[in-house]
Design goal:
Largest sheet: 5 strands, parallel
Radius of gyration: 20 Å
CATH topology of the largest domain: Rossmann fold
Order of helices and strands: EHEHEHEHEHEEEEHHHEE
Number of domains: 2
């Protein structure tokens, strides 16, 4: 595709914007300039989209209805995603700009702004962004807005750290390494024991209950589900398909 001033590109942008009018205006201009755009109205949806594809730029509204924009930004950086992020804000306080930049943003644009300036800033970020093609295991596992750092043994959801015992973390790590697959109590117990943690399958259901409360309470999207007569699965799906303990 060809953009303005003869630039040829095939760039994908993730637009995280809850305001309908602003989203429509930005989306129209991005499409006009030849960008491929994926939109998300909430932080939760944006983090789900970031599970798979890589984007060349992320435009992040500071006023989201579910997760704070700073929470989304920190989650993006926690996952090791180095895509440039521009914050779009109705506020122009110095403290807001500093907080955003210190949290991992690459740029901050306050409204009202001209679309020509927005596009110029996007082009600048794209030019300076050096995408890394080498794939390596950095220990980061993600599902929706849940991030598990298996190397540092840290789990967060919606940008907030989840306090976990060694046994709870071992179970969560096993579940997220096999997300979408139903695991039996016996297989979970075997994994936990292989980590040098004393356990038996009779108490796995108790720790699953503890774990579910820590990662799912307060979130409309439930991730940890019980499959009747089979076991447990970590999956971002409709809770109606599952039996909750």
């Amino acid at each position: 595709m060809t953009g303005k001033k003869g630039e040829v590109f095939y760039m994908e942008i993730l637009l995280i914007e809850s305001n309908h009018l602003l989203r429509h205006s930005i989306l129209g201009r991005l499409a006009e300039d030849g960008y491929q755009v994926t939109t998300a109205l909430t932080g939760t949806k944006a983090l789900q989209l970031l599970d798979a594809p890589r984007y060349d730029t992320i435009l992040l509204d500071t006023a989201l209805p579910d997760i704070t924009a700073i929470g989304v930004l920190r989650e993006i950086r926690t996952r090791g995603i180095d895509t440039p992020v521009m914050m779009l804000s109705t506020e122009n306080r110095i403290s807001d700009r500093v907080h955003a930049l210190d949290s991992g943003a690459d740029d901050f644009l306050a409204m009202p702004f001209h679309l020509d300036e927005l596009m110029a800033r996007i082009r600048r970020m794209v030019r300076t962004y050096k995408r890394t093609s080498a794939q390596h295991d950095n220990g980061i596992r993600c599902l929706a807005d849940l991030t598990v750092d298996t190397k540092r043994q840290i789990a967060t959801r919606g940008g907030k750290r989840i306090p976990l015992s060694a046994k709870e973390f071992a179970i969560l790590e096993y579940l997220i390494d096999n997300q979408g697959t139903t695991l039996t109590r016996e297989s979970i117990e075997k994994h936990v024991s292989s980590q040098g943690i004393n356990s038996n399958d009779s108490v796995i259901s108790v720790y699953i209950h503890y774990l579910r409360r820590k990662i799912d309470d307060g979130f409309s999207l439930k991730l940890l589900h019980t499959i009747r007569n089979e076991g447990y699965v970590l999956r971002a799906d409709s809770p109606s398909k599952f039996l909750k303990l």
